[in-house]
Amino acid sequence: MKPEQVQSQITRVLSEAISGLRDPRVPLIVTVERVTLTPDFSLARVYVSSLGADMPDLLEALDHARGHLQRQVAQQVRMRRTPTLEFRSAADNLL
């Protein structure tokens, strides 16, 4: 499968999974702006944004839920190995 296809599938799965998190630090609407994969597919950088959210708190909550989110990706995206998820603020990527 092409990296672009995998990235779009991971984006879709994470968008759904994040909206289902029951963590007060995660606002109702979190947008997964982009997912970039390393060439060996071992790491997926997930760029997220949310209006009015406390980004450090949101990123900490997503890191805390990483195991759950990686399991969602593993179940729904057909890959030999599930990449490690690394969450970043989409604003950091604009610099």
Automatic annotation (TrEMBL):
SUPFAM superfamilies noted in UniProt: Ribosome-binding factor A, RbfA (SSF89919)
Q: Which gene encodes it?
A: rbfA
A single GO molecular-function term is: ribosomal small subunit binding
Protein's UniProt keywords contain Cytoplasm: yes
4Fe-4S in keyword set: no
Protein localization: Cytoplasm
Main localization is cytoplasm
Q: Which family does it belong to?
A: Belongs to the RbfA family.
NCBIfam families, per the entry: rbfA (TIGR00082)
Protein keywords: Cytoplasm, Ribosome biogenesis
Origin species: Deinococcus marmoris
Q: Name one GO biological process term.
A: maturation of SSU-rRNA
Subunit arrangement? Answer: Monomer. Binds 30S ribosomal subunits, but not 50S ribosomal subunits or 70S ribosomes.
**Which Gene Ontology cellular component terms are annotated?**
cytosol
- Name of the molecule in the record: Ribosome-binding factor A
Q: What does this protein do?
A: One of several proteins that assist in the late maturation steps of the functional core of the 30S ribosomal subunit. Associates with free 30S ribosomal subunits (but not with 30S subunits that are part of 70S ribosomes or polysomes). Required for efficient processing of 16S rRNA. May interact with the 5'-terminal helix region of 16S rRNA.
